[in-house]
Amino acid sequence: RNAERNQVELRAKVGDLYEPVDGRLFDLIISNPPQTPAPPGVQGSKIGGPDGLRYLEPLVRSAPDHLEAGGQLLTFVLSLADTRRFESLLSEQFRFRSLPAEARPFTWEEMNALHPGLEAYLQERRAQGLANFQEDGGVLQFMTRPFLAMRR
């Protein structure tokens, strides 16, 4: 509807990561896949595997094969995910910069609705330095940080 409202021609394709556009090159890829960490085996529309990078890792690793020279990848990472590992993945194939982060409030009820016991899992990851969230005035918040990565 947004494309129609703005008179933009759009073709949508459905598939697994780059499969629907195999063989094509782009100057810009934008992606924000599911990345909330959850215990192994947990599935869901917002769940990104045990470290939150289940979809981000193959997205980043395969992006250079789908970017023109000088092409860019714009993606986001939640501070609940393993952000250090994410930045390490980016640095293997890209020059990148992080853009200003934005706080996103959440509740434990919201997290436990995704998977019972998710609160304990995220608290454990936080204690290990693998997830970052804050409590400010009784409000829980994690950060969403965009990254702009340029193919080397």
Give a structural overview.
The chain has 152 residues and is an alpha+beta fold. 26% of the residues lie in helices and 29% in strands. The protein has helices at residues 2-5, 56-62, 83-93, 108-114, 118-127; strands at residues 26-31, 67-78, 94-98, 102-106, 134-136, 139-151. Strands 1, 2, 3, 4, 5 and 6 form a six-stranded mixed β-sheet that branches. Helix 2 (56-62) links the parallel strand 1 (26-31) and strand 2 (67-78). Helix 2 runs parallel beside helix 3 (83-93). The chain is globular. It starts with a helix and ends with a strand. The model has no long low-confidence stretch (mean pLDDT 95).
Q: Which descriptor suits the 3D outline? A: globular
Mean pLDDT: 95
The proportion of residues in beta strands is 25-35%
Main pleated sheet: 6 strands, mixed
Question: For this entry, what is the oligomeric state of its chains?
Answer: single chain
Number of strands: 6
Termini Cα gap: 36 Å
Helix and strand content put the structural class at alpha+beta
Estimate percent helicity. Answer: 25-40%
Poorly predicted runs of 5 or more residues = none
SSE series: HEHEHEEHHEE
Question: From the alpha-carbon coordinates, what is the Rg to the nearest angstrom?
Answer: 17 Å
Number of helices: 5
